[in-house]
Amino acid sequence: MEKFTELSGVAAPLPIVNLDTDKIFPSIYLKTIVRTGLAKWLLAEIRFRPDGSEDPDFVLNQAPYRNARILIGADNFGCGSSREHAPWALLDFGIRCVIAPSFADIFYNNCFKNGLLPIALPKETVDLLMEDAKKGANAVMTIDLPNQTITRPDGEKIRFEIDPFRKHCLLNGLDDIGLTEQKGAEIAGYEERARAARPWQFGLTQR
After folding, report:
1. Are residues 97 and 181 in the same domain?
2. Engineered SS bond to 142: which of 8, 22, 68, 191, CB 3.0-4.6 Å?
3. Taking Cα atoms as reference points, which of 86, 137, 97, 139 lies closest to residue 121?
4. Quick one: pLDDT at residue 205?
5. Based on the domain organization, do 197 and 141 belong to the same domain?
6. Which residues on adjacent β-strands are paired with residue 97?
7. Are 138 and 196 in a shared domain?
8. Residue-range definition of the domain harbouring residue 150
9. How large a percentage of the chain has pLDDT more than 70?
10. What whole-number distance in Å separates Cα of residue 2 and Cα of residue 87?
């Protein structure tokens, strides 16, 4: 998993309340477990017209936001089914951080497991950031995870809270597999003891 330390980039406004995971990544495209190449289906039902052409009115189809690294969302972001393809598609598009007043629990947890930082802030604060994000090419924000701050386009810093363990995992690029691999020596020691105590479980002949 890619480490997350500091991120600077354009923030795109996406003020859709109850944006569910089927809107973020439609179920019709759940045909792969590969994490790359999913950006083309991100928000497909609202990014594209029925004929497959881009909707020029949709924010991510507009020049300043095609390279957005941050999304400013609305209440209950990521509700619906538990599909992990939703954060995968956001990451594949280039989004590394989503800021919203609240998140659905499963989506929130899936973000951390994949290196995407979800930040929950009071609605009044998110409203300010939403207005910042409407500034087009000037909607540049900086997310400083070590210091837990968001720097607005005007230079003002906003502090956010994050669970210390999740922060540690993001800073060090540790997903569930990475965390397990950190315990390699302990696992090897356990297996060695288990082989000695119960050799028959490992197809060994007891001496």
Report:
1. no
2. 8
3. 97
4. 65
5. no
6. 70, 117
7. no
8. 6-160
9. 92
10. 14
**Helices 164-172 and 105-113, axial angle in degrees (round to 10):** 40
Which residue did the predictor score with more confidence, 175 or 139? 139
pTM for the full predicted model: 0.87
> Which tokens is 99 given?
């800021």
pLDDT, greater one: 178 or 66: 66
> Which tens digits make up the pLDDT trace of 99-144?
999 999 999 999 999 999 999 999 999 999 999 999 999 999 999 9
Residue 129, φ and ψ in degrees, nearest 5: -65, -35
In a domain, 200, yes or no: yes
Residue type, 119: I
Chain position carrying tokens 């052409």: 53
DSSP alpha helices (H): ranges in 55-163?
Answer: 85-93, 105-113, 123-133
For position 144, which CATH number holds? 3.20.19.10
Is 207's pLDDT higher than 60? no
- State the angle between helix axes of 105-113 and 85-93 in degrees (0 to 180), rounded to the nearest 10: 50
Domain count, the chain: 2
Examine residue 166 and state whether it is found in any structural domain, yes or no: no
- Whether 141 and 84 map to the same domain: the answer is yes
- Indicate the SS3 state at residue 136: helix
Domain assignment of residue 168, yes or no: no
